[in-house]
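Sample entry (56 residues):
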Amino acid sequence: MPHRTRPMTALLVFTGLNVVLVSTITPVYDFVCFHPYWERRREHCREQREAAIGKR
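Predicted structure, serialized as tokens:
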């Protein structure tokens, strides 16, 4: 029995999956980029930079 392809079903699944991924990217991006860890790291790096400048 030969395998039958279903291009319309495949297209709908592919499009639906892309819609789901595109709709979830913004909250994930916001969570990763604005996580408090990054603010603490920026503050720590700034303090180290200021301390290095002050020691000269």
